[in-house]
Structures are given as C-alpha cells and as structure tokens.
Amino acid sequence: PSELSLIEAYFLLENEMITIFDVKKNKFLTSKEFFEIGQQIHHKFEEKYIIYKDLRQKGYIPRPGLKFGADFVVYKKGPGLEHSPFIAHVLPHDSKISATDIVRAGRLATSVRKKFVIANPLTASYYFFEWFKP
C-alpha cells in the first residue's frame, strides 16, 4: 500500500492525478478545500508545498524528512533505489535560523552522508552547506 503525506496528496490533487473523498461530508474535495485543511493541520504547509512542487517539477522526489530533522529528504531516483543526496529545511522569509542550528543540521546531514539545504519558498531558491576543511 502507498502512503501519501498531506503535501504529496495535495500535489497529486492539484495536478488531477487523484481525487480525495471526504466521507464525513460525503463529497469529493476540491484542491482549494484540501489546501485549507492542509493549512489548518500542517505547520508551514504553503511554504513546504511551494518547495515540494518546485523539487518535483525539477525531477526530484521529495519525501518527508522528519527522521533526519528536516522537512524533506530529496531523491533523484526514489527511496529504495538510491541514497538521497540531500535533506532540505524550508525556511520562510520571515524566519530566522541561528548559526548553531546551521552547524547542528550540517553535522547531522554529514553524518548520514547528505548535503544540508535551506530552501527559500519566497524565491524557490536553495542554499547548500558543506563542511570545509582547510
């Protein structure tokens, strides 16, 4: 059986690849209705979705990254087919991240042989961090 995150489900619904039926209301949900539900129950839903959609459009496969302390684990081919090359943390434009948090995330990413990426949903741009040894 397949398991979809809210963000994955919204992406598929928005692209008319699936339908979502609300059994309590006895009707199919529109993408707008599902988006509103996502915003109510998922922290940073819109920001994460912007990055998720951008990564998918670039050919990557983003999966939930909670076990790595990030928003997404990003694959080129898919889970089970390869190790993911990077983990991504979505940082909304009005958020802050401390130097300690960057080092912590970078060390975690390095320990699991991945690159740490901060994703900016306002511009759909990505900032990669790598350890530098002089």
TrEMBL record:
Keyword Disulfide bond: no
GO molecular function (one): nucleic acid binding
Keyword annotations from UniProtKB, A to Z: tRNA processing
GO cellular component: cytoplasm; nucleus
GO BP term, pick one: tRNA splicing, via endonucleolytic cleavage and ligation
Residue intervals of the tRNA intron endonuclease catalytic domain: 45-119
Name recorded for this polypeptide: tRNA intron endonuclease catalytic domain-containing protein
